[in-house]
């Protein structure tokens, strides 16, 4: 099965209202829908990437640099294709992160083609470990009318929707004020609902430590990327040695080697490497294999259409993140066969490849 051509389509959808995280204001949901066409009529497709920054360059890289390299190659040799695309990341005069994201787009679509050709869901093609995964919501964003009661009500609603827990935003306020938001979240959700505060690298070590001490009694499942990026390996390791809360990081890394450094430093308990930012499913699975040797859990940052199967394919998979419609209206509009979440679990699709059924009318409407 040979690769004939590759198509990349930009999709963009505004949020109903802006949402604020610790260090970012989110106004749109953007993605790149990539299709790999083969000489046997099999078409692999997937979408990924979260923001529109650099999207034009990602599309150009796919069209002008990566697609020509892969034309005529055996689509089943995914690792060979992935390695063939790596030279695009080595130009020191441009942002290599965009080349890595472009590779991720093609890699995800290529895996879908392989799964479809073999009529096998990808988590089973990769060996398989489970047919369902824990489902965690993304929430707790800062809003203009934000108050503690609103945070509590949001967590209660997510619990009632069947989620196992929620990753909620902190880091924009003082550690003390954000700890009160987490306390409100616990009050709203009740016991047993997992809470994962995420400051998005928004604090110094001292601030992160103060926050961790305050929320320690609230049964925190993990604390995600609490410290500034500039010294994160050392600061995360120091924090992990000091407080009993599990530490999660990895989404800001762009290579398996970067994640390995986090693990070797003793900095993390959980790695949430992002396949759409970090080179695709092929790269994510390398991270997962290394993490297993360190006793570190793994999940995918965002992109549940990919993250669920990745987590279910490995023994150290922790779960999948699912954004709500107000944060990711594109996913909820584009995916026609979104899977139900019940009792804290998301059951994987039975279809081949990623098992995605995309709404073509929505695709046409959202094409940027």
UniProtKB/TrEMBL annotation:
Query: What keywords were assigned to this record?
Result: Magnesium, Metal-binding
Tell me, which GO biological process terms does this entry list?
amino acid catabolic process; carbohydrate catabolic process
Necessary cofactors? Mg(2+)
- InterPro entries from the xrefs? Enolase-like_C_sf (IPR036849), Enolase-like_N (IPR029017), Enolase_C-like (IPR029065), Mandel_Rmase/mucon_lact_enz_CS (IPR018110), Mandelate_racemase_C (IPR013342), Mandelate_racemase_N_dom (IPR013341), RHMD-like (IPR046945)
UniProt-recorded Gene Ontology molecular function terms: hydro-lyase activity; magnesium ion binding
Which intervals hold domain Mandelate racemase/muconate lactonizing enzyme C-terminal?
Answer: 148-246
The protein in question is named: Mandelate racemase/muconate lactonizing enzyme C-terminal domain-containing protein
Source taxonomy lineage? Answer: Bacteria, Pseudomonadati, Pseudomonadota, Betaproteobacteria, Burkholderiales
């Amino acid at each position: 099965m040979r690769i004939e051509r590759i198509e990349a389509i930009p999709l963009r959808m505004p949020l109903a209202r802006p949402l604020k995280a610790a260090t970012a204001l989110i106004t749109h949901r953007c993605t790149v829908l990539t299709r790999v066409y083969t000489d046997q009529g099999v078409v692999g497709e997937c979408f990924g990437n979260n923001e529109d920054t650099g999207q034009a360059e990602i599309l150009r890289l796919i069209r002008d640099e990566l697609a020509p390299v892969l034309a005529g190659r055996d689509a089943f040799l995914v690792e060979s294709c992935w390695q063939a695309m790596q030279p695009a990341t080595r130009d020191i005069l441009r942002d290599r992160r965009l080349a890595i994201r472009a590779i991720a787009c093609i890699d995800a679509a290529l895996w879908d083609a392989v799964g479809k050709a073999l009529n096998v869901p990808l988590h089973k093609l990769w060996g398989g470990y489970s047919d369902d995964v824990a489902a965690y919501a993304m929430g707790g964003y800062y809003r203009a009318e934000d108050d503690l009661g609103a945070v509590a009500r949001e967590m209660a609603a997510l619990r009632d929707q069947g989620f196992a827990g929620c990753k909620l935003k902190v880091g924009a306020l003082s550690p003390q004020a954000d700890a009160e938001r987490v306390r409100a979240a616990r009050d709203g959700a009740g016991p047993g609902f997992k809470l994962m505060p995420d400051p998005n690298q928004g604090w110094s070590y001292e601030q992160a430590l103060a926050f961790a001490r305050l929320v320690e009694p609230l049964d925190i499942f993990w604390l995600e990327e609490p410290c500034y990026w500039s010294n994160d390996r050392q600061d995360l390791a120091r924090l992990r040695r000091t407080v009993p809360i599990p530490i999660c990081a990895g989404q800001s890394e762009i290579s398996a080697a970067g994640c390995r450094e986090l693990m070797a430093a003793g900095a993390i308990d959980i790695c949430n490497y992002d396949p759409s930012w970090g080179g695709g499913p092929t790269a994510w699975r390398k991270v997962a294999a290394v993490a297993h040797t360190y006793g570190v859990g793994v999940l995918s940052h965002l992109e549940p259409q990919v993250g669920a199967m990745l987590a279910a394919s490995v023994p150290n998979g922790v779960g999948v993140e699912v954004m709500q419609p107000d944060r990711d209206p594109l996913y909820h509009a584009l995916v026609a066969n979104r899977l139900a979440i019940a009792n804290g679990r998301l059951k994987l699709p039975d279809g081949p490849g990623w098992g995605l059924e995309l709404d073509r009318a929505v695709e046409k409407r959202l094409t940027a």
